[in-house]
Design goal:
Two copies of one chain form a homodimer. By secondary structure, chain A is of the alpha/beta class. Chain A has two domains: 7-147, Four Helix Bundle (Hemerythrin (Met), subunit A), CATH 1.20.120.420; 150-354, Rossmann fold (3-Layer(aba) Sandwich), CATH 3.40.50. Helix content of chain A is 44%, strand content 18%. The first copy, chain A, contains twelve helices and 16 strands. In chain A, the strands form four sheets. In chain A, strands 6-5-4-7-10-15-16 form a seven-stranded mixed beta sheet, sandwiched between helices. A four-stranded mixed beta sheet of chain A has the order 11-8-9-14, covered by helices on one side. The radius of gyration of chain A is 20 Å and the shape is globular. Chain A starts with 6 loop residues before the first strand and ends with a helix. Chains A and B meet through helix 8, strand 6, helix 9, helix 10 and strand 13 of A and helix 8, strand 6, helix 9, helix 10 and strand 13 of B.
């Protein structure tokens, strides 16, 4: 099955598909400056927690690669600035911070080796090259993780019938085959006969624009609905399972994901429909005990009062929390690349995160 | 408090505010042909169950008034055609059928009197005039009913804090002060300090376009949200009550209303927030035992895949049920112009509908 690539490392720079212009236009941008990458993350050229992790990794790599620093100290200082800039882009997606931390550790490790060898300018050049390799490795790991998530998750999908998802947790959101859509893709590949119910996911319409587009390209049957049809279809639409992605998962299993996920989870439970979260281990934030500690990004009101630049309401106040938190008690299982975590998540998630 | 008039009887014809063009343009159309009125109902120039009832009444009146029939038999035949045409416009709103039945009874009564008096052409002219009076009476009764609903409902509203509504159950939907918004208006008039959370209500955006506009005009504080924020705000937003309108209420209290109402009701119960339905007695359909018998209008898929004429998704299948059914067990009370019905609704609604 062909899947689209939202981000790619090339000799010319970091190439990203501009997701804001899908499905009407397929436009790629090439970024050679880490500040441009940070702006692209903030402006949602690329979105989806795992893909943001890859973008952050590639942003650090391009920043380091294109740095004029020739000494280790100069590069270290610039590395710090790069990481700070990327960290200020989007607050909820933990994969962003996961990537930054991973690069921090890798940088420290490589810098130590370079100092030991007193390698000078050649050591700095080598360090830069190895950080680029690290970014490519992050991308490859994402792709592998999605495949594994898909494999574990597909077994939980109904053999036939409807599955509901939310927003876009597909290739565009992960730079692999997708988390939630990866589960659906592998299920379809392995013979399940599934139709996907796709809520449009206002205000950005990631469902209508991105998920519908990905599924349509892969010839997986889908029906597009508005967000307020979720309850009606969970009640009457023959839905066998819900599968969504995640932006951050707390130690106890509470999950932050695109606004609307919480309501969908409550409605799924009302109708005894299993509710699955599909996410890589990197989305786990073991530093926080519960969802109450997850910062929720507030985006601009204009994104609610306008659509494609046109006002859809009079000039009134609007709210725009981009995510909500689904308490663990509404989640049937969390599907990771290392296996399926079931309640109590405090235990199962700890176990999965420990063995690697 | 000033409230907007969505429909008005004038010597020139039936004047309607084109709600499809709000809030950007305030445009009125004058209809002199009942077929145009039927088309206006179908195309949603006017919408909202009680307002559709008024429009149907005025549509019949204009059809009869402008009829060239000079004998009772000719007028009776034309009356039948007029009613049939109006009945085929929107299937869910019971007020439409209520108005048609009411005029059927009134016509029969007046025709009988005319025959008794052998009044001939003068009798026919008089009958036409009396049916016009009946339409004006329907409009006046709506306005009175809204006031009473508002008075009963205001007492159920929190003294201060947030109230959530759905779609537009305002002046634009009823031709009075509104049902759900009538409750909010009277609450504000009587000193409650209320902010209204207004879901935009896709695909037609009645919340963003109409409810936000009405409240803004009346200087009632509001915050516009997308439909998928409903769960998040019922969980975290300090909402003291939900109040919505209704398109049809079954004998047992099951209520059909704008798509999304059911999900909102389930989420309100999850957070122990009272969920009120505000509707005139005419919205009661005592002929059906439960919500399962309410026909749900399926509108065009294009209304989901497009917004203001622009495609928002690739060319995929979409679903567009315009309404959903909220089972009575999620409803705290039903507020009518004759008082507040509480569970068991089978009994309380029967009692309210009996005394008049």
């Amino acid at each position: 099955m062909h899947t689209v690539e939202p981000i790619r490392w090339t000799p010319e720079g970091v190439v990203m598909l501009d997701q804001r212009r899908l499905p009407r236009e397929v436009v790629y941008h090439t970024y050679t400056d880490y500040r441009e990458v940070a702006k692209a993350i903030q402006d949602m050229v690329i979105r989806g927690a795992p893909a943001i992790g890859v973008a952050a990794a590639m942003g650090i790599a391009i920043g380091v690669e294109r740095s004029s620093a020739e000494t280790l100290d100069a590069l270290r200082a610039e590395f710090g600035t790069i990481c700070d800039t990327l960290a200020r882009t989007r607050p909820t997606a933990v994969d962003l911070f996961w990537a930054i931390e991973r690069f921090g550790r890798r940088f420290a490790e490589l810098a130590l080796a370079a100092e030991k060898n007193s390698a000078g300018a050649r050591g700095v050049a080598r360090l830069k090259a190895l950080l680029v390799e690290e970014a490519k490795k992050v991308h490859q790991e994402r792709q592998d993780a999605d495949r594994e998530i898909g494999r574990f998750g597909a077994e939980l999908m109904p053999k036939s019938g409807r599955v509901m998802t939310q927003c876009n947790a597909g290739a565009l959101a992960t730079a692999g085959i997708g988390t939630a859509l990866g589960v659906i893709r592998v299920a379809v590949e392995t013979g399940h006969s599934i139709e996907v119910l796709v809520p449009e996911t206002r205000p950005y319409l990631q469902g209508a624009r991105l998920t519908a587009w990905e599924l349509h390209q892969d010839h997986i049957p889908l029906t597009l609905i508005t967000d307020n049809m979720v309850g009606h279809f969970l009640k009457t639409g023959g839905v066998g399972a819900v599968v969504v992605g995640a932006d951050r998962i707390a130690r106890n299993g509470d999950t932050a994901n695109k606004i609307g996920t919480y309501g969908m989870a409550v409605l799924a439970r009302e109708h005894n429909i299993p509710f699955y979260v599909a996410a890589p281990i990197s989305t786990l934030d073991l530093s926080i005990g519960s969802g109450e500690e997850i910062p929720i990004e507030e985006r601009s009101e204009e994104e609610v009062t306008h659509l494609a630049g046109m006002p859809i309401s009079p000039e009134v106040r609007a709210a725009h929390p981009a995510f909500d938190v689904t308490p663990a008690r509404f989640i049937t299982a969390i599907v990771t690349e290392r296996g399926v975590a079931r309640p109590p998540f405090e235990t199962s998630l700890r176990e999965l995160s420990a063995h690697s």
